[in-house]
Amino acid sequence: MTAYKDLSRDELLELKSGLEARFTEIKAKGLKLDMSRGKPSAEQLNLSMEMMDVLNSGANLTCEDGVDCRNYGGLDGIAEAKQLLADMMEVPKDNVIIFGNSSLNVMYDTVARAMTHGVLGSTPWCKLDKVKFLCPVPGYDRHFGITEHFGIEMINIPMTPTGPDMDLVEKYVNEDPAVKGIWCVPKYSNPQGITYSDETVFRFANLKPAAEDFRIYWDNAYCVHHLYEDKQDYLIEILTECKKAGNPDMVYKFSSTSKISFPGSGIAALAASDANLKEIRSMMQVQTIGHDKVNQLRHVRFFKDVHGIVEHMKKHADILRPKFEAVIDIFEKELGGLEIGSWTKPLGGYFISFDSMDGCAKAIVAKAKEAGVVLTGAGATFPYGKDPHDSNIRIAPSYPTPEELSLATDIFVLSVKLVSIDKLLGNL
Amino acid sequence: MTAYKDLSRDELLELKSGLEARFTEIKAKGLKLDMSRGKPSAEQLNLSMEMMDVLNSGANLTCEDGVDCRNYGGLDGIAEAKQLLADMMEVPKDNVIIFGNSSLNVMYDTVARAMTHGVLGSTPWCKLDKVKFLCPVPGYDRHFGITEHFGIEMINIPMTPTGPDMDLVEKYVNEDPAVKGIWCVPKYSNPQGITYSDETVFRFANLKPAAEDFRIYWDNAYCVHHLYEDKQDYLIEILTECKKAGNPDMVYKFSSTSKISFPGSGIAALAASDANLKEIRSMMQVQTIGHDKVNQLRHVRFFKDVHGIVEHMKKHADILRPKFEAVIDIFEKELGGLEIGSWTKPLGGYFISFDSMDGCAKAIVAKAKEAGVVLTGAGATFPYGKDPHDSNIRIAPSYPTPEELSLATDIFVLSVKLVSIDKLLGNL
Lengths: 428, 428
What we know:
The structure is a homodimer. Chain A is an alpha/beta fold.
């Protein structure tokens, strides 16, 4: 393959005309395909349907410690659900609180509490002139949405193949007391699928924050979300490392079963130090009498233990793996050597990250939309929706059927080519 | 019966000695009885067990508008759940948002949002020097807990047999721009079981708040929670009245199925004007991808429609009614004419409110505890836990079995008598 940049103007124009003909043809089909969000497919949801049967009208809904799951109470979760999610999150059971159906909501609430009440006695953030968060980019749009909502200034931290640029992280965290947090998806990151290296985790654990209320917001959303049995990333456990480093209170770790059982009907959890959890429980007590214990019990009875989760995730992987591979195969076949884009090849998680030539991402997303393919908005992977290079696009291969996915990827590739040619021709 | 106050010192001492002997006898039994919280009994929870069967592994979990309830999405609830709760709340379906398992959490979030973001463009409350809430007393401790948590100053408003003292409410709301809200349980109020009269509701709807961001926090927790079929309180619908009065945005109405299906595993709802809901949705969108739609569908498939809820509530009433009557019978038989206490006789809800002689409530609760009966802490029905007369005690008859309840009420009555005698003897 010749790189596009090495083609003459005439060669580009000729190429363009052929591609445009194909594009017009596909556009005429009036397709509607969605690669925008990390939603499991119907086939994946079917994997958990038997969870609907584990609690029937004849079931005993009393949990291990004698609590009737149907009634009020149980502020921080039933013991067996704590055990299940603690094992999944690789932390002691007593360092876990079980919440409702959304870890995003737990993260939102954690920031909201800091805004109005501070963190372990610090000044409430709403009383401060300036609060800043570090945002590894590209990253998860809903994280950035929370900090933007609360008027928190977001600072881009470039991702590297081993995690966020730790020189920058250390500089900001250790020197600026206005920096109160950093958003992390440490395993199979959203959208790149990068897992933080051991050294990155060690450096996180050994930060010396200028702010006593600085916290690492460690969203371990994809902790058991491998695509392969024989090729898996491994992430060092952050709570243990922070404790060893003398920073036991410096991290909040979030997770949920949203992409394990049913998105929206799963259970979420937060793991943190005793001191952090004590404070959170005391505030939660004002907010709720307790989360849905019946659903907690349903999850425990279905998965039984963490091994049940691991086995279940293999079934998800069997459905997801061919989809990831299909997209990457088309990318390699169609875009390899053209030097108009690069992409990640993750071993887990829900996304492939694509980088176009600078200044092309918005146009590619718009082009694909013309032919009926919805992608995550260009810029969404950056705070304030502003990608300084206008180059990153998040690809979510999970939701479409394999047929839809191939078609959508073809359209995407075509869009990349057309926009890149326009860019090289100086039309953008 | 001779009123205790008309007995001589010697008569009181003699009475006391007999009562103390009985108390010692009962205390020796080492009982453990709980009349502290409005928890449904196991028998009531059994009424909803068939809800566990309506969604099994063979069920179609697609809702009316084609949404797969198992997946992400559906920020403000599935259409059929909105219809069900709208009918129960007597509001149009489009004026309802369905939330997670806890209306308390919805109320907390509503105040939390006002703290950090204000209400429809007003100054965020955390930026104000002073924010005040009116608190009809006696009232619900968890309401007061929310406002106390956010440092909001609470002002006691005495309850009357027709609702809060509206002269006082009008004075505060219409004159003081720092007054941003009032907590109301308008039907079968907690703890008195009072339902606001038509005139009270009209006066609420016609308030002329000094603060543009003043809202009525209308917690209609007991909207369908009647004890009798032939004797029911009727409450005028507040959203309609506010609209008629030109105050469409002035009220947030809360409800849930916590005491209809399973406490902690029900669904909650908020009803409000279009403008209020638009703002709430836009903020919710940052907080969550959506609440548990599977549980929403489970509720709809079980109850079918509001008539299903009404029929279901008759079964709850059949279990609750004898308990309320048993407590009130014992009160009338044992305390009638003694002039050492008065109590309410509600037609619905979850509580009986007891008023002792001034300065006796704390001592009564402590005395009952000695014999193993846990009551809601004296003072809990007032902001900051401070009952200015130390006289109100909330009785929750729902949770104990009928046998336990009789025993607990006997102990309570005995405690009232003993403490009242001490009060009259000048020993308190």
